[in-house]
Specification:
Belongs to the UPF0312 family. This protein is mainly beta. It is 9% helix and 47% strand. Strands 1-4-5-7-8-9-10-11 form an eight-stranded antiparallel barrel.
Length: 217
């Protein structure tokens, strides 16, 4: 868990005021218990790139997994600990920053067979809704745009904790995951194997290991 520590979830009892909608009552009606510590995190945050990873993994040749990451991106995050439904996120990724550890493979990925970065230099995720599922778990739905194709995706998002680091930065940690079918975004390149199956799986797992710093502006 590193510098993050999980917090115990505390149940906030709903108020009995008729006709009044409160964050606690909203959470209770959906069966989700809000952690009071989350309220203190309400505000704007920025992903700390040196301590975060926007990664992916995909099955290769049916027998192994290739992993990579995007290292250049901008982020805008707003977290509302009292009303998680008001939380939102935007991530703009420069696709040319893809890094799988193999130069030849990276060159293929940024070429016309895959991302075609000369025509489509950016990949964008914009959230459309956030639901607190209980405890430290959230479900964030958003629009993912790749190669000018926009389709909805759903992230499983887990809150890891928050801390004031030795440099005076307030940090919060989140892990997010989702699996997409790359062909739905026009990433259809493949080679068939002699004994059946494909060289590159159509299913790609996206992984968001986020260390976010509270914005001061």
């Amino acid at each position: 868990m590193g510098i993050f520590s999980r917090r115990q979830t505390a149940v906030i009892e709903p108020t009995s005021t008729a006709g009044t909608s409160t964050p606690a009552a909203e959470a209770w009606s959906t069966g989700a218990a809000l952690d009071p510590a989350l309220r203190a995190l309400t505000g704007r945050w920025t992903i700390d790139r040196p301590h975060s990873r926007i990664g992916f993994s995909v099955r290769h040749a049916m027998v192994t997994t290739v992993r990579g990451a995007f290292t250049d991106y901008d982020s805008t995050l707003y977290f509302d600990g009292a009303r998680p439904s008001a939380s939102r996120a935007e991530l703009v990724i420069r696709v040319a920053s893809v890094d799988t550890g193999v130069e030849q493979r990276d060159a293929h990925l940024v070429g016309a067979d895959f991302f075609d970065v000369r025509r489509y230099p950016e990949m964008v995720f914009r959230s459309t809704s956030t639901v607190h599922e209980g405890g430290e778990s959230f479900r964030m739905t958003g629009d993912l745009t790749i190669r000018d194709v926009t389709r909805p995706v759903e992230l499983q998002l887990d809150y890891l904790g928050s801390v004031l680091d030795p440099f005076g930065y307030e940090r919060a940690g989140f892990d997010g995951t989702t699996t997409i079918d790359r062909t739905e975004w026009g990433l259809v390149y493949n080679q068939r194997l002699k004994n059946g199956g494909a060289m590159v799986s159509e299913k790609v797992r996206l992984q968001f290991d986020i260390s976010a710093i509270r914005s001061t502006s």
